[in-house]
Design a protein that fits this description.
Blueprint (H helix, E strand, L loop, with lengths): L1 H43 L3 E11 L4 E13 L2 E14 L3 H7 L2 E15 L24 E15 L6 E15 L6 H4 L2 E12 L5 E10 L5 E11 L3 H8 L5 E12 L8 E19 L12 H7 L3 E19 L5 E17 L8 E9 L3 E9 L7 E7 L2 E2 L4 H8 L1 E17 L3 E17 L13 H6 L15 E8 L6 H17 L4 H11 L1
């Protein structure tokens, strides 16, 4: 009897403990859910909306699942952004820490298919209506997560106007701590691994669309990569130029890959990058020369770098297997193409931290028109009037590469001629350049054209009429000698710094081949006017 009574007592106690345990668990689940909702609402303020369909709290296996979450923020009648998540799963939930100290400790957190729709980045929240201003209140909630994983995320930014951004993303973040102090996010995230795919971005001016196949951080989490990036114009060159009504260059590009070393990059007010690798860049530039230049002064790179508030230093940039195509739409409605292939270049350094060091030094080798080797280097220094140096050489090629420049500058075309070698040296500032060209060439023949129609002019004096009396040497002296063309020219401030290179070389070539000093001729023409 005593044994039976003992077993009955034990059985009743077990049942009672089980019921009590279930009650504790159910109460704890209810407390946890209520605490979660109240604390989120307390943190966010009345401008935020947060709700979910259901939650499952597994205290015994230390797991939590929340399904069909909706999250948004508004300003007046406008929704600034909204987000939905199919499911959030917590694993390794710290039950004891929650029950005792009302803190959340989680081993891992998985978000399945979070969708974020952002509508307005420029809106400002009135501090009188929202005293938190998006910053967590001190010690209101204490959260620690060892690992956060995002699966199948989607993001869109779709404000009023043409600007638009959409992308898919996945992420892995480790060691996240949120204690309500409002510390910067870089202090929350020790290691983050992010992948963005199928990115599409339409620029605010609607002129261009950017596509990126994939970008993110590599496994070592210190290298940012971009794969298959393209920038395409949404307009033809004629539409593009009409919209601007001046000679604005239209840029398009395709890029195979970029890798950026971020091991010393994380500092919000100062950008430090040890190395950037660029591979397979193909840049196309269209410029309609039938339109005028803008009435403005274009800054050289030094002035632009000094005006930016961001301090930066990139130790080295390497460019390989790249190409540039330049299409000049001429006054006679013809299109002249210049292309550089097999470009390999190094920029080291590129920085605006120290005025004692150069802004950048660029060294490049490439092939012009698939045949002529071109090499140059340039250094832009900080200092009075933005000084720079530019020098290089061009190997054997036909003289047609000068056609579009000579046609627009002087209304002439090279009908015959071969370049054996061109060497050039330029020193310049924002006001002008001085330098020389050593030009080895032979059998130079030039024909005068009408700049409006492109048709040949008739008469022996046509070339003199066009060039103001200049006469060209047909060839260099014999025995591998050359003529040096010393030049000095003022800069057209409406043009960019690359145009200053081209104009200087062209000035040196014209000076080299002409029998009469073009500076004197131009001076005489101005006096006659």
């Amino acid at each position: 009897m005593k044994k039976k009574l003992l077993w009955r007592v034990v059985f009743i106690l077990l049942v009672a403990l089980t019921i009590a345990g279930l009650a504790v668990v159910l109460n704890a689940e209810s407390r946890a859910e209520s605490f979660l909702i109240s604390k989120i609402e307390e943190q966010l303020g009345e401008d935020f909306h947060f709700e979910f369909e259901e939650s499952t709290w597994g205290f015994f296996n230390r797991s939590v699942a929340v399904k069909n979450i909706e999250f948004s923020r508004s300003q007046g009648d406008s929704i600034l952004w909204e987000s939905t998540v199919d499911k959030i799963e917590f694993f390794g939930f710290g039950v004891y820490e929650y029950l005792v100290g009302k803190v959340y400790r989680v081993d891992s957190l998985i978000l399945s298919r979070p969708v974020i729709n952002l509508f307005d980045l420029k809106a400002r929240i009135d501090s009188t209506n929202n005293p938190h201003q998006g910053i967590l209140k001190k010690a209101a909630i204490d959260v620690g997560v060892q690992k956060i994983q995002i699966k199948n995320g989607q993001f869109t930014y779709n404000p009023s106007g043409p600007e638009y951004l959409s992308a898919k993303y996945e992420s892995m973040v480790e060691d996240v701590q949120i204690d309500g102090t409002g510390a910067p996010i870089k202090d929350y995230i020790k290691n983050a691994h992010l992948i963005i795919r199928d990115l599409v971005y339409v620029t605010p001016d609607s002129f261009s669309t950017i596509n990126v196949s994939e970008m993110g951080t590599l496994i070592d989490q210190s290298t940012l990569f971009v794969s298959e990036l393209s920038l395409k114009s949404n307009y033809s060159i004629s539409e593009y130029t009409v919209l601007h009504n001046w000679r604005k260059a239209m840029f398009e590009l395709d890029l195979e890959s970029v890798q950026i070393d971020m091991s010393r990059m994380i500092k919000w007010t100062e950008l430090t990058i040890p190395k950037v690798n660029v591979s397979g860049l193909h840049l196309s530039v269209n410029q309609n020369l039938r339109y005028p230049l803008p009435e403005r002064v274009t800054l050289l790179p030094q002035s632009m770098a000094m005006e930016t508030e961001l301090l930066f230093q990139i130790d080295s940039i390497f460019v390989k297997n790249s190409q540039v195509d330049y299409f000049a739409h001429l006054k006679n409605y013809q299109v002249s193409e210049t292309n550089l292939t097999e470009i390999n270049a190094t920029i080291a350094p590129f920085q605006n931290r120290s005025m004692e060091l150069p802004l950048f030094t660029l060294q490049s080798t490439s092939t012009l028109y698939g045949a002529a080797p071109l090499a140059f280097q340039t250094t832009y220094m900080f200092g009075e009037n933005d000084p720079f140096e530019f020098s290089g050489s061009l190997g054997r090629t036909k003289m047609e590469f000068l056609d579009n420049f000579l046609f627009n500058a002087a209304g002439v075309e090279i009908s015959n001629g071969a370049l054996d070698r061109l060497e050039f040296s330029v020193n310049g500032t924002k006001y002008g350049t001085t330098g020389y060209t050593d030009f080895y060439y032979q059998n130079l023949e030039i024909k005068a054209l009408n700049q409006e129609t492109g048709k040949y002019k008739v008469g022996l004096n046509a070339l003199s009429n066009v060039l103001g009396g200049l006469v060209f040497w047909k060839s260099n002296p014999a025995h591998d000698q050359y003529r040096r063309g010393d030049f000095q020219m003022n800069r057209d401030g409406r043009k960019g710094f690359v145009a200053q290179w081209v104009d200087s070389i062209l000035e040196g070539i014209i000076t080299t081949v002409s029998k009469v000093n073009p500076v004197i001729v131009r001076g005489n023409k101005k006096k006659k006017k």
